[in-house]
Design brief:
mainly alpha; Arc Repressor Mutant, subunit A; 6 helices; globular; transcription regulation
Length: about 130
């Protein structure tokens, strides 16, 4: 089944419209750290440092900003426990699960196609310069 932009004409929002608020959410979900953070949280809740270790390469600052954006969009729930030291857990909301299922399908498609991607890159890089 091929999905076109016309298939979604009945939706109240269009990511293709310049001022549409869905663009920001799409950027949060598909951005480098957003996609990896959502994917990491798919199996269950994680504490900040567990999440940081799971998402290899993300800085503390970027993970914090990413979690704030995803929480604001209603995709991630932050739960602070009143303990000493404070314990904060992050988990996907029902909407976050719905979005992440689709995102993981894309991730698996890309991972499964990497031999083709790498061959295409090699062929491209071997072309003579114009």
């Amino acid at each position: 089944m091929t999905v076109t932009t016309q298939d979604h004409d009945d939706l109240p929002y269009s990511v293709f419209a310049k001022a549409c608020p869905s663009r920001g959410t799409l950027e949060h979900v598909t951005g480098r750290w957003g996609g990896l953070t959502l994917g990491a949280l798919y199996e269950g809740s994680l504490r900040f440092n567990e999440l940081r270790r799971h998402v290899d390469g993300v800085s503390e600052k970027m993970l914090s900003q990413t979690l704030h954006a995803l929480e604001r969009d209603g995709l991630v729930h932050r739960e602070a426990q009143p303990t000493n030291p404070p314990r904060v857990d992050y988990r996907l909301t029902p909407l976050g699960h719905q979005v992440t299922e689709r995102l993981l399908a894309l991730i698996h498609c890309v991972e499964g196609s990497m031999d083709q991607v790498l061959a295409a890159r090699e062929a491209y890089d071997a072309r003579p310069l114009p």
